[in-house]
Amino acid sequence: MTVTIPLSTPDTPADPVDPTASPYQSYVYGYPHKTAYQELEPRPALRELWAGEDRGALSLYAHIPFCEVRCGFCNLFTRISAPDGLTGAYLDALERQARVVREALAECGEAPRFANAAFGGGTPTFLTAAELSRLCVIAEQRMGADLRAIPLSVEASPATVTTDRLAVLAERGTTRLSLGVQTFVEAEARAAVRAQRRADVEAALGRVRDARIPVLNIDLIYGITGQTEQSWLRSLDAALAWQPEELYLYPLYVRPLTGLGRGGTEADPAWDEQRLRLYRHGRDALLASGYEQTSMRMFRRRGAPVIGDDEYACQRDGMVGLGCGARSYTSRLHYSFDYAVDMREIRGIVDDYVARPAEAFARDARPLDGRGRAPAPPRVAVGAPGRGHGGGRLPAAVRH
């Protein structure tokens, strides 16, 4: 059984009943969006959630909710910078959580085995090299994941892929590094509230290639203010010069509670047409350059190594999530920590997580009503006041 979430693609209207509706309302998800989660009591123990589950090929995910800046389009769970000591305290809490989760999984029978791992955020490479090493130790020694023997994917930004951090990731067995470049055009980067110099981006890509991580993915965004077909193709050409194994092309969305969202999120048919036009230009350019399209957004260079299982499905394959904003999947329930977009809410959630004692992690999920149905997504915009989770905090569990 799967949760049905309304989806849209660039070539199909978001709502077939309303042909004037913008197809660019939200990303297309292959899993329940956070707005599909609900908070209900009582909260079951982790060992109850995982009892009877197949734990022979789990995914491990660790969420690092820190970034050096917050891009204007970003509505992910991340806070800007970190006061002295916060990242270390966060890893302390992550280790407490990992110990409790591992014990709960072991109580269900045989020790869990992990088939792949990922560090996301936020920006995991916001951590120092020593902190990244500690994160890997937590995954290996506390959770039992053999990072050098399984696919390990890490999200990164150009400003944080320093040589020492990359050395740690490469030595620990990272097989895929995803670099959020978004654009090689400096004026477009400023328009997206993501100030970066092209020279710095190129230098970062050079360091990644020197680290010899098997798969480099580059994220690019189309639809940025001031972007033209010519400037979009310049960004694509600049990315292709590095021969990345993967490229992701994302349309720009303007979401509530983001920097760009302060200017409004009304439909704009001309902008919709521009994004569709840029998508097609990008798709055609990559196909002509020897890439294969594997999804609406993902393109893989023909002959590049395939890291991990392309057939992963959250409705079938289990995942254990650690950290604020992380979600976990069993075959019967998806559960998550509290999630927010508003920065004040995010800071509060991170502070609460860091202060949690180990025993508080033994009950991670909030179940649904027991009827085995996925809840309808909330009818209010994220962060709408007066509807339970003010300031953008989202609920915490979905059953399927």
Structural account:
The protein has a single domain (41-399), classed as pyruvate-formate lyase- activating enzyme (Alpha-Beta Horseshoe), CATH 3.80.30.20. The longest helix has 22 residues, at 86-107. The model is unreliable at 1-17 and 365-395 (pLDDT under 50). It has helices spanning 46-50, 86-107, 129-142, 163-171, 186-191, 198-211, 229-240, 269-288, 343-355; strands spanning 58-64, 66-67, 79-80, 114-121, 152-156, 176-182, 215-222, 246-251, 291-293, 298-301, 319-322, 327-329, 333-336, 397-399. The chain is of the alpha/beta class and 400 residues long. The strands form 3 sheets. It has a 9-stranded mixed sheet. A 3-stranded antiparallel sheet has the order 12-13-14, with no helix packed on it. A two-stranded parallel ribbon has the order 2-3. It is built from 9 helices and 14 strands. Helix 7 (229-240) packs parallel to helix 8 (269-288). Helix 3 (129-142) links the parallel strand 4 and strand 5. The termini are close together.
Structural features:
9 helices; three-stranded antiparallel beta sheet; alpha/beta; 400 residues; pyruvate-formate lyase- activating enzyme; 14 strands; 16% strand
Biggest beta-sheet profile: 9 strands, mixed
Tally of contiguous helical segments: 9
* Oligomerization status of the protein chains: single chain
> Going by CATH, what is the homologous superfamily?
tm_1862 like domain
Distance between the termini: 6 Å
Radius of gyration: 21 Å
Instruction: Kindly report the CATH topology.
Output: pyruvate-formate lyase- activating enzyme
What structural category do the secondary elements indicate? Answer: alpha/beta
Percent helix range: 25-40%
- Architecture per CATH nomenclature, i.e. the level-2 architecture: Alpha-Beta Horseshoe
Coarse shape: globular
Mean pLDDT: 82
User: What ranges have pLDDT less than 50 throughout 5 or more consecutive residues?
Assistant: 1-17, 365-395
Order of helices and strands: HEEEHEHEHEHHEHEHEEEEEHE
User: What is the count of β-strands?
Assistant: 14
CATH class: Alpha Beta
